Amino acid sequence: MKGTGCGGGKLYSRIEKLNSSVYISVLCITDFIESEMKGIVPENYLTGRGIDLSAFLPAMEYCTADEISRVAGARSLKRQIEWLCGRIALKELLYAKKFPGKDFRDIIIGYDESGKPVVSQHEDTGISLTHSGDFAIAALHLTPGKKTGIDLEKSSGIDLQAVMSVAFTPEERTEFKNRPAKDIITVFTFKEAFLKITGKGFHETINRVTVDGNRILFDKTEVQGITAETRSFGSEYILSIIYES
Question: Does residue 112 share a domain with residue 39?
Fold first, then answer.
C-alpha cells in the first residue's frame, strides 16, 4: 500500500502517529514484491538465493552502495528483502517526519558499537526496526535523546514452548503454561522491544526482563520513564512498542 510523498512520488509504507512524538511506518513486504520485484525474484522468496541488490532500482534509490554492501553477499533472499524493506520503511518515516526534502540516500542508517541501527550524524534520534512474516515496521521518536524499541511477531504457527524456554523465567513459564498464544507472544514482544532500547544482547539479558501488564521490570525493578504499548496487528500478529517518556 503506497501513500503520497516525495514531491508527488509514492511511498511504499503507511505512516501512523502514536502520539505527538512517536510514529511508526508499516511496509507490506508481499505488496512490495508484487509491485517492484515480480519477475525478479521467485514467487517463494523465503527459500530463494540472494541477488545483486546493487542492480535493483528501489535499492539504489533508497540506499548508498555502502549500505547495500552489508547484505550484498547474503545467501538468503529472504534476509535481503527484509533488510531492504526495513530500510525503506525507516527512511520514509525519517523523510516524512524529520528530514523533509532530503534525498533518501542522504539519510544513512549505520550501526553503533552494539550493532543497534542508528541515523548517521544524528545518533541521538530514537529509531527501531522489526520484521516478521509479511511486514517490516520502523519506529521513530522525534524527541532528541529519547529511545524507542519495537517488535512484531506472529501469534500463530509458533513453538510457544521454545519461546518460553528461551525468553521466560521459570516463574513466568509456570504462570503462562496454559495461557493463550496471544498472551505469551505479547510478553515476548515487550521483552524484545525493551532490549532494543537498551542495545543489549538477546540471549544475555532477556531472562532479566519481566513483564507485568504494561510494566517492564529489569532485574525485578520496574523501569521508570518508559511507556509500553501493544496491539493486535492484523489477524496473526502482535506488535509491541516501548518508548522513553
Answer: yes
